[in-house]
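Researcher: I need the complex structure. Ligand is flavin-adenine dinucleotide. Inputs:
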Amino acid sequence: MKISEILKKNEPTLSFEVFPPKTSDKFDSVEAAADQIADLRPHFMSVTYGAAGTTRGFTTEIAASVLNHGVTPLAHLTCVNASRAATKEQLDSLKSHGIENILALRGDIPEGANPADWEFKHAHELMDFIKQNGDFCVGGACYPEKHPESPSVQADVQSLKIKQDAGCSFLTTQMFFDNSTFYNFLFKVREAGVTIPVVAGIMPVTNANQMAKIIKLSGAFIPRRYVALLDRWQDDPVALKQAAIAYATDQIIDLIANGVNHIHIYTMNKPEIAAKIQENLSSIIKKPE
Ligand code: FAD
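Model: Output:
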């Protein structure tokens, strides 16, 4: 099923992200975790793509396994340093596995690379190419706290209009921990004429090291309330996990109460986290028919 159809209904949806393994010896355990998460029957599941190339084939395999478990998969695809010919092969492979939804991304620029030489410079060019090469539903990424390369949220939001014009049907946000950041962002997105659904990306961060990495990579703002719980339970992983799930649940309830219907959970391949959040919201987000 096309994700644009799933998001069209004026009802809350819950989707989960998994990432494929970096090495083949971990494939079976990651596939088992993805299958367990699929058995929870989310509205769809996304599978990330290794821009460095190590896990590319695994994205298709895990997405195909999700589909075999009866859940609509969303395969991520990046275009950093990718040729049109290689990208066409990826698209053909996705098509042959019955995958009809792609999250089209540029990917991070590797150190020392020269993007001027690339066949695709930005995600919207990949979106264009995908639309020309198959009947795919295409989504894209967005950043409530702006993309790190962008001079301002306004400048970044302009690139979302280009994505929409290139055939992008929905956007998924980078994780955020303060809903007011998201509401301000959404206001600017709509003001810029971007009308497609924006799916809110939520991550229950269950350890302090993970949070340090997130801040370094995305520059996300961490509210004092979250800092306090990381401080209080940094040496008690079970208590911290419970607190992080409660925080994420609270964030989601506030979003849905304010009309943000589509929620995407960065599960870090942990079925128990996906299951607990789904259970906490069982009367608020109905499972798909
Ligand atoms: P773009 O849309 O190309 O934007 C990159 C920068 O260029 C932004 O600053 C933007 O404002 C600017 N820009 C865009 N268009 C133009 C233009 N025409 N002219 C001038 N400037 C422009 N990475 C992976 O490697 N694998 C994944 O699976 C993956 N999944 C992700 C999922 C989500 C939901 C998110 C939010 C990110 C994900 N990423 C993933 C990370 C992503 O690849 C990086 O953030 C990357 O640096 C930017 O990708 P993009 O698609 O947003 O790029």
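Model: Summary of the prediction. Residues 78 and 107 are 5 Å apart (CA to CA).
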